[in-house]
Design a protein that fits this description.
- The chain is an alpha/beta fold.
- Helix content is about 35%, strand content about 20%.
- It has a single domain, classed as Alpha-Beta Barrel (TIM Barrel), CATH 3.20.20.70.
- It has an eleven-stranded mixed sheet with strand order 7-8-9-6-5-4-3-2-1-10-11.
- Strand 7 and strand 8 form a beta hairpin.
- The protein starts with 6 loop residues before the first strand and ends with a helix.
Length: about 270
């Protein structure tokens, strides 16, 4: 079977300095030792050879990894576009990240409201995050906000509209609303029906949307707004058909072909 991929994802750590109520911990690998730089290089090269167009470095919180700069430099050798997915609270030196090779930063921000942010993430670092995002933009990094839709908290139309206005005022031009993956009881109970929000956006934009991976993408108010659905079913079908969107190198240096199929290593899939 030939595994084809669009994305290389490097999970540098499962550790995190936040305590998000909807965390994906139940779907991600168990914590292990940090990958060797050799393992990172081998995985990046393999993903590139199999068609990956870009890379995303994530966690946990990737900036907790003391070797993060060296790993970024290695990944940059193979990919022009390198994303860093982070909660942003430790992003105190965005210029250094850019010099190492990061081109885009994906900041996980569930709400523009400080109280809601603190309630959902379990940390009181809203001010620090805002400061760090402004530094990243000033450093010339392209910033995209990733905001989860949480029923009774952030999943309604009014909150989405205010989130767009908030992002625009910050100078952020890309915003993704993401449907919760049912990873734990809280996420299952607070999973928003994305179809409702999607219909509202269609009426709002009055334009045909584009499809990118598992997301519907709209142009609105000079911003790129995406609605991303839970990809578990889609990825299962893709894997069965011999396709995957991502090569993933986990914290314990296990290379897997699909983020939601951690039981299958790359070599097992290729057999």
């Amino acid at each position: 079977m030939i595994i084809k991929t669009d994305m290389f994802r490097l999970i540098v750590t499962e550790s995190c300095n936040a305590k998000c109520k909807y965390c994906l911990a139940s779907l991600t690998p168990k914590p292990g030792q940090n990958q060797s730089l050799k393992a990172v290089e081998q995985a990046a090269r393999k993903a590139k050879e199999n068609g990956a167009k870009e890379a995303t470095i994530s966690g946990g919180e990737p900036l907790l990894d003391k070797d993060i700069i060296n790993k970024i430099k290695i990944v940059k050798k193979y990919f022009k576009k390198v994303n860093l997915q982070t909660n942003g609270t430790l992003m105190i030196n965005p210029k250094g990240l850019k010099r190492a090779g990061i081109t885009h930063v994906i900041v996980n921000l569930p709400s523009y409201e400080k109280k809601v942010y603190e309630l959902l993430t379990g940390v009181k670092k809203f001010g620090k995050l805002m400061s760090n995002m402004k530094k990243a933009l000033k450093a010339g990094l392209k910033v995209r906000i990733n905001s989860v839709l949480v029923k009774n908290y952030t999943g309604d139309y009014a909150h989405c509209m205010k989130m767009i206005e908030f992002s625009k005022q910050l100078g952020v031009k890309e915003l993704t609303f993401t449907q919760l993956v049912p990873a734990n009881e809280f996420a299952r109970q607070h999973r928003t029906d994305l179809d409702v929000t999607r219909e509202l956006f269609k009426k709002l934009t009055q334009t045909e949307n584009k499809r990118y991976h598992s997301a519907d993408v709209y142009n609105f108010l000079d911003m790129t707004i995406a609605l991303s659905s839970c990809p578990i079913k889609e990825n299962s079908q893709a894997l069965e058909n011999g396709w995957t969107k991502e090569y993933v190198l986990t914290e314990d240096s296990k290379l897997v072909a699909d983020y939601f199929h951690q039981d299958k290593t790359l070599m097992e899939v290729l057999r």
